[in-house]
Amino acid sequence: MTQEMPPAATVAPVALPAPRTAGQPSLPRRVVADRNGLIGVVLIGILVLVALASLVHLGQDPLAQHRTGQLTGPSAAHWLGTDQFGRDIAARVAAGIFASLRVAVASVAIATVVGGLLGVLSGFAGGVLDAVVGRLTDVLFAFPATLLALALVAALGHGWFNTAVAIAVVYTPIFVRVSRGPVLTVRESEYVKAGQVLGFSRSRLLFRHVLPNVSAPIAVQVALALSWAILTEAGLSFLGLGTQPPNPSLGLMVSDARNFFPDAWWTLLFPALAVVVAVVGLNLLGDGLRNALDPRSVQR
Amino acid sequence: MSLRYLAGRAAGMLGTLLGVAVVVFVVLRALPGDTITAKLGTQAAELDADQRAALRHFYGLDASPVTQFLRWFGGLFRGDLGVSIDTGVPVTHLIGDALPVTLELAVLAMIIAVPVGVLAGMLAASRPGAARDLSVQGVGLLGLAVPEFVVATVTVAWLASAFAYTPSAGTFVSLGSSFGGNLRQMLYPALVLGVGLAATVMRTTRSAYLEAAGSDFVRTARGKGLAESRVRFRHILHNAGIPIVTMVGIQFGYLLGGTLVVEQVFALPGLGRLLLDGILHQDYAIVQGVTLLVAGTFVVVNFAVDIVYRLLDPRTRSEGRRA
Fold first, then answer.
1. Which residues, including other chains, have CB under 8 Å from residue B125's CB and lie 6 or more apart?
2. Are A269 and A14 in contact (CB under 8 A)?
3. B153 touches chain A (CB under 8 A)
4. Which stretches does DSSP call E strand in B275-318?
5. In this structure, what is the dihedral angle of CA atoms B284, B287, B290, B294, given to the nearest 10 degrees?
6. How far is A140 from A7, CA to CA, in rounded Å?
7. Alpha-carbon distance A32 to B138, whole Å?
8. Backbone phi, then psi, for A88, in 5-degree steps?
9. Which candidate from A8, A139, A157 shows the least CB-CB separation from B32?
10. Is residue A20's pLDDT more than 70?
11. Half-sphere exposure (CA, 13 Å, Cβ side) for A196?
12. CA–CA distance, A38 with A284 (Å, rounded to integer)
């Protein structure tokens, strides 16, 4: 798990976009117009469809064990083969993708809302709140991300939501920093000054004027955070600290496959491939978002 | 760099360290299960109330949380991290045995990854958008996206089938007892760690190199007819050095806490395995000790990187002097 995107380093500088002018295509269109963005959208779209398909049990039950046909390779009956208990790998990978996405989306949603709000509030209000939030983020940043996630999972216990909370705590300080910085600039802008002069309430200024204008860097960070969350969830499950058997999880499947590789290569390849596709897709989507939001950005 | 700046940064670092200690203590007190139950297993059910109270007193679990924290925190200054409830061995001894393994692993991974990453990043940045750039970037993205546990698992399986070698903790050869034997066991785990690391270093190098390559002094250097290799290494890479050094320093800190998967798969008795065993056996003292050590080291390394950064960059140095 060293590939963990180092939190402090992923706080990528994203220029604040110019206010949207008439005739400019909408954000989703601009993301899809970017080559990386398009590939990212397609990859993630496929994964989401596969995950949703697992909900309606298209074809096979991911938990059904079979006395015969264990560890058979890909065939017409089992597209991606079977595992040591004769369970259908395709169904298990699909259910595993669903489990990964569920943890990733929940954790990033929590981190974005809590971290984003704390960052915007502390940047906008300054003073004591800013100082306290700043110190707290410093302390959380002092832990290597994987280590903190691990300690929190140990403390909170198993279950997908606990895993999501642990990952969310690790990622919250990043959202605090990413959202606080731009607020300092926007706070001094003329449209916010104008709003103050017009006597708008603080909450109206914050939610109607400041927040929409700092959402660009947050959006990019969401894509990167999702990819990190998927890697972390898979890593924790691999170590036996995330999803518990017999529930399907991509990390757990790779861990089980250890004993049957390389003979039964399909038990390892397909769950691993699912993680790779998710992480590559989200990174490309993040690139696409960054390019779409910042017309000046040269592709680096 | 003024003394005042140094003192300010050092004070900030100490504050963060204190915060880290509090977080470690608070989070791990919330660990599920009772330590005594964890220690005695099913026998715990046979304890009567007095025995239970005596045990709680013996382990200091009957004191208030604040007293427990102060006791634990005071112990840190005497180098006392507590005793493993599972084995009765002092945590400092356990860490003393495990730390060298993890350190060696981290250093080896760095030795492998930094040159590869820097050279690949320079290669990619020398022609942005060209075939070499896209392929280096593609490989780099794969290096980041293929989870370490997959690379490690495949490597171990391959070692087993090709050389009939299966790692096991019992046969670990320390660096002191046999250099060659130790290196044979550490090389593959270090390579696995190096993959993701090289990809990260490559990405940082590429963007820092491009940034520096676009500056005026590079145009001047080319204009006065310097050899291309001299421009690349002396002028561009030298000026791209700061983000790279920062990244490498941060990554080193992460490595200390991030060797867990590799240690687990390759059965190396390092800090990561110690931590995982502590978590699985609900052995508070071990988990607290390792987490605190790694986070503490991380804070100190970041402090050191910040200082080196200022020494490396004459601009920040003179600003410091003027202040």
1. B133, B205, B206, B207, B209, B210, B213
2. no
3. yes
4. none
5. -130
6. 11
7. 20
8. -75, 120
9. A157
10. no
11. 11
12. 8
Q: Which residues make Cβ contacts (< 8 Å) with residue A72, sequence separation at least 6? A: A78, A81, A82
Inter-residue contact B25 to B69 (CB < 8 Å): yes
Nearest to B109 by CA among B272, B222, B305, B303: B272
Cα–Cα distance measured from residue B189 to residue B134, given in angstroms and rounded to the nearest whole number: 28
Q: How far apart are CA B296 and CA B294, in angstroms?
A: 5
Residue appearing with tokens 């007892």: B177
Contacts of B196 (CB under 8 A, 6+ apart): A2, A3, B143, B144, B148
Q: How many other C-beta atoms can be found within 10 angstroms of the C-beta atom of residue B245?
A: 17
Instruction: Indicate yes or no: CB of B129 within 8 angstroms of CB of A300.
Output: no
Phi, psi at residue A82, to the nearest 5°?
-125, 160
Is ipTM > 0.90 here? no
Please report, for chain A, how many H helices and E strands are present, in that order.
12, 0
- Residues in B closer than 8 angstroms to A157, CB to CB, are 32
pLDDT digits (tens, 9 = 90+) for B159-174: 877 777 777 656 777 7
CB contact under 8 A, A3 and B199: yes
CA separation for the pair B153, B261 (Å, rounded) = 10
Question: pLDDT tens for residues B84-97?
Answer: 877 888 888 999 98
Rounded Cα distance, A88 and A74, in Å: 10
Q: Which residues contact B287 (CB under 8 A, 6 or more apart)?
A: A151, A154, B28, B31, B275, B278, B279
CA angle A206, A210, A212 (to 5 degrees): 115
Q: What's the pTM value of the predicted model, to 2 decimals?
A: 0.83
And the tokens for B170? Answer: 């019992």
What token pair was written down for B143?
Answer: 């290096």
What's the CA dihedral at B5, B8, B10, B12 to 10 degrees? -140
Beta bridge partners of A88: A82
User: Given CB atoms, is B37 within the 8 Å cutoff of chain A?
Assistant: no
Structure tokens at A115: 């971290």
